[in-house]
Amino acid sequence: MTSRSDDIRLGADIGGTFTDIALDVRGTMFSTKVLTNYSAPEQAILDGIDVVIRDAGISAAEIGIIIHGTTLATNALIERRGARTALVTTEGFRDVIEMRTENRFEQYDLNLQLPTPLIPREDRFTVKGRIGAEGQELQPLDEAALEEIADKIAAGGFGSVAIGFIHAYANPDHELRAREILARKLSIPITISAEVSPQMREFERFNTVCANAYVRPQMADYLARLQTRLKDMGADCPVFMIHSGGGLISVETASEFPVRLVESGPAGGAIFAADIARRFGLEKVVSYDMGGTTAKICLIEDYAPRTARTFEVARTYRFSKGSGMPISIPVIEMIEIGAGGGSIAWVDAMGRIQTGPESAGSEPGPACYGRGGKRPAITDADLVLGKLDPDNFAGGAIKLDTAASEQAILRDVGERLSLNAMSTAFGICEVVDENMANAARVHAVENGKNISDNLMIAFGGAAPLHAARLCEKLGIDQCIVPRGAGVGSAIGFLKAPFGYEALASKLTRLSRFKATEVNALLADLKASAEGFVRTGASGRIVCEITAFMRYAGQGWEIPVPLADEPFGDDAVAKLKDLFEENYQRFFGRAIEGLDGLEIEIVTWSVKATDVRPAVARHELTTGRKTGKPTTTREVFDPVSGAPRSYGIVERDTLCAGDRVAGPAVIVERETSTVVTTSFDAVIQSDGAILLIRKGSHA
């Protein structure tokens, strides 16, 4: 009987259009893309595994570990396809998730519509009982009322329960007792906010516990089904999930806290880009991940992606901040827009070409897929422009219909604007590229950065098609398209550490700081975080301690990194100095001259991570000139505004140091890299493609 091997690892990423599989067999990578199966998502994973183990010449039983990321939780929230959920909350707080923060995300829109809350008002139940901000009980919990609420939920056909009480982050006793009472009469999952998101700010915390409860039955069922079917095919190995913060957690933890999976796929992509940055010693990088449904932009500094404690899902108003569903969990910070290969192109009331956020996905897919799709997608535009080979898409697994793309583009867009198919396709791609460029600029400015100072790393099935043009718009001179770019997120899963971030809000002013209490709190957080990591790691674990601090009266905090050691008698002075130093780094100067201005700590964070082996370092090379490609194809050239003969080069025929002069298209199984007239491409020692702007001092 064949036994599994620890040095054979598989990453599986379910996206909105494709499911990507990457298999690492002792350092050799095998990969494939399979159309996502919406009715049975696990089937696409099994189909992809069959392909890569056949290519690798191994059996499923030899796989040592499977690491999985998915957009299923995200899609369930966006499309409102979760379980009917009941919210049990403190009396007087029934409408918190509907009232939100009362901020207007579009200041001058008189007809502004707030997003519909995840749980309707008739499914929210209130109970007396009150915990104070310091964690003290102000009013006992009404247990008799909870018994009645349990009867109503049992008779109401609910599939899940969320419990969110005021100030439960400071003292979870009421939530724990409420769960105990409800569980005696209910056989459905019950989620409490103190375990999902023990942070202050009730709107974000209540919304997070509601989101977790909403998707929990569906995700638990899917993960159980996936494990069963993997074992049936012989892959009886540990399965771990990548969470939104970029670490790995067990399937059992993911089933209980599925809201942690909401940004799991994009997190894998950011880890992939960070690994490339570390490999080449690049300290300032912008990652560009464009798949079938969305495009993601993430800033990476000092080989690590930026992180945050909250993010928004399903923004409803032009991707405006505040118009979505806030989720209060640790997450890799990025900006995501509805611009993927399957994003639909259309014409608005003002006669402008628009794309997304609606996507054709894999069912029915873009018009060129021949699976019933009739509306034009970005992939259709790329095909008409000549960027794609209709006979060699996804390794030849999908034959593309150019005529169908032209018909869809003309019918829905071109005829309305009196344009031919080629001009319309160029207009669609220009809108997409400009939208992505604007998103990248905004993301950089919001973080106080200049986007043109960065090197771009492009991956995902569609990103290499658009990366050079995007660099032209952003003023970026260099872009790396790594080997395996088409399945970058799945490869990123294999690079992810076992990691978990534990958070706790405890509002503490420095004037009342007690080292013994804080040391005990941090010890508990460290034990919790390390406990999650130990489910999959046996080696050394390192912890990062962060205090989120502010001047008293400010609305938001800044992160202040701390040493992993207990606080002593000099803690207050050290914390004050560290806060002012970081405040000055964020805002230019600390606030001085105001007597009695207090500094306070809002939230503590402990991030535990197992130590990963160091990556081999490579130096970027500008290469040497090679002969002209023997094969050419007509590709629309954005500089001249007309089709032009582009050289076609197979990536596998190129060696380290080879240089391809643009314009050209470098093709491979999962994607194609378009080298525009402004760029040349050089193959690096690890097989990556480096796009270099002609005339730059690269």
From TrEMBL:
<dbReference type="Pfam" id="PF05378">
    <property type="entry name" value="Hydant_A_N"/>
</dbReference>
<feature type="domain" description="Hydantoinase/oxoprolinase N-terminal">
    <location>
        <begin position="9"/>
        <end position="184"/>
    </location>
</feature>
<dbReference type="InterPro" id="IPR008040">
    <property type="entry name" value="Hydant_A_N"/>
</dbReference>
<feature type="domain" description="Acetophenone carboxylase-like C-terminal">
    <location>
        <begin position="523"/>
        <end position="683"/>
    </location>
</feature>
<dbReference type="Pfam" id="PF19278">
    <property type="entry name" value="Hydant_A_C"/>
</dbReference>
<dbReference type="Pfam" id="PF01968">
    <property type="entry name" value="Hydantoinase_A"/>
</dbReference>
<dbReference type="InterPro" id="IPR002821">
    <property type="entry name" value="Hydantoinase_A"/>
</dbReference>
<feature type="domain" description="Hydantoinase A/oxoprolinase">
    <location>
        <begin position="205"/>
        <end position="497"/>
    </location>
</feature>
<protein>
    <submittedName>
        <fullName>Hydantoinase/oxoprolinase family protein</fullName>
    </submittedName>
</protein>
<dbReference type="InterPro" id="IPR049517">
    <property type="entry name" value="ACX-like_C"/>
</dbReference>
<dbReference type="InterPro" id="IPR045079">
    <property type="entry name" value="Oxoprolinase-like"/>
</dbReference>
